[in-house]
Amino acid sequence: MIRTLTLLAMSTACAALFAASGGPDAYGYTWKDSNEPDGPTYDWVDITTTGTLVNGLADDNTVGPFVMQTSFEYYWYSRKFVWIGSNGYIAFADGNIASPFPTIPSAGGTNDFIAGMMSDLNFGGTGNPAQCYYLDDGVVTTISYINVPFWSPTAPGWTGSNTFQIILNTADSTITVQFQGQSGLTQNNDIKVGIESVAGSIGLQHSSNVYPTGGYAIRYYYPPTALLDVTDATVIYNTDPGSGGRFLARDGNSFPMSTVIGNIGNVDINSFMTTGSVLNAAGAVQVTEQVPVNFLEVEGDTLINYTPQFSPAVAGTYRYRTTISGITGELVTTNNQLIQELVVVDTTLALQDLRYHGATDDGIGLSWNGGNGGVGVYIVPPYHPAYATATTIRIVSNLNLASFNMKVYADDGPDNGPGTLLDSVIVEGAQAGPGDKVIPLSAPLTITSGGVYVQWYMLGTDVVIAQDITAPFSLRTFEVLDGTWAEYRDRENIDFFLGLRLEQLPTYDIGCTGFFDINELDEFGSPLTVRAFVKNFGNQSISSFPLNYRFGTGPVVTQNYTGAAIAPGAETLVTFSQPLVPAADGPDALCAWTSLADDLTANNDTVCVNIVTWTGIADLAALNATLAPNPATDALWINGLPEGRYAMEVMSMQGKVLQQLAVLAITGPLRLSINDLSEGPYVVHVHNAQGSFRAPFVVQR
User: Is the C or the N end of the chain the one with fewer CB within 10 Å?
Assistant: First the structure.
């Protein structure tokens, strides 16, 4: 499919006569066709009954990899994995190629491919007869495109028919392309036939913008002697295959810097340097290290784990850059650097927008001809579980106020691709105008592992999504045409204004933290009013929950809290309507606890204190003692206590015990140090089985 921003033109160019042979290219490949006396003989190989039907091809996408039983020698390296492109090519690395198609060879973009009949073909649309078959017998690998039409901007979305096949022979490393039949025209007569190496700048083009004729064959011949020695190392990937962008939590786990370096030339490489660095948005180096590689054999690779790690202390966008240097006579240097985007997110914020794009777009955006295309992005949150509540998008323009669809998919499809549809929201035309938009999900999603795919899909013409063309790039963008996903053709140069909004996961967590005016080893001989401090440890207000207390092995007293909602982090004092009536003499534990359903943490629900109860005693006798000075600076003196052992507590005015000790009164006043107390009012309580003394005092300095 052609994007609407690409100029469309139709011509009625007729098929031209092909030259009988061509080449060599810079490496030594040549070709001959079936018009040449010693060229290949057209001999169509029917694999429709013996091969495997390739499912999943649509408009502008690839399917694979298919694993060949025997490695295929291609240029100065060998390949075992092959991807099949819907646009009439196969590639030895995943990469989507779409109109306008590049001249062969062309450095940049997707390289390392064989263009059988690379053109704007289409497997989608109602009634489309297109099929593709794959067969590998261990020596020969055949890919056949059967009755595949060109894409068309008008209904039913396709026109014409093309039947051709690509044959890879591992015995002699030849590549044969055969054309059984061809009809119809494609946009701009945009057709490329040829082969291109991984270098991009080295390849052999058979023809450009010429329609092939039926009953015609081309064969590309591997050079008996290479015309050049190729010295070429490359950064294969950073972190993991694909080098996709990462979201990191601010002040979270450090990011380990690892990379894989490979020799993709045809000569061994001695002694070169690799450098791994993380840079911030301003280009300032945050962490870096150089690691030498002493030797790398042909087709060899090496894993490098740099010693320092990146600590994500400040939110923002960063780039992890790996660079190769110091290789003498290297043919290709454009693959000596690879950048992976890192986005550090402040996960303490109530709202967190996960997005790879920056603040500024190019003002042009992207739209699909016909109004039935879309784009997507793969997002893995920096923590789990993550609570998603909305998608985000920027629309550049929408001349006809077309509606669009925002969808979220789980990554449970093949190879962690888009699978289960988790959410779908249609934004109607009246709300689909230009600008930044936050689109609430139909229901919040809790992401417990992995990530999700966020998709924008047009439901009409001329609605345009914004795109960011400023590096770094996530390499996690996709194009979605007729419901089929493919890596976005310009993913190395573009990110879309498409993201996912997280909120703090709702947590309900409430518990008891203490008692009011009930302290360790207090003695009670009459009914005791139980009052407990209750705190909300979660991030949601809580207004109704059961609250309980129990003394020793006695009955549990339960009442439901129905007071004002307790805000996150707040604490309140709750009074039980049923008092504790002493039923035995002696000490035991008085415990209070909450029993909220779905409470997050059980270990903060309960508080206990050891007290002594007596039966038959109305109350402990009041001891006739005095306290001085008051206010006090560093010490208190308690006069008039009878000789004996006492328990002593210093409490806040709210009844929380701050100091607790056992003391012995013999003769004279009893001294209490208050150096550790800050200024303010307090209560001191001294007691034993014979009596109790309680008095307020003030610390003042």
Answer: C
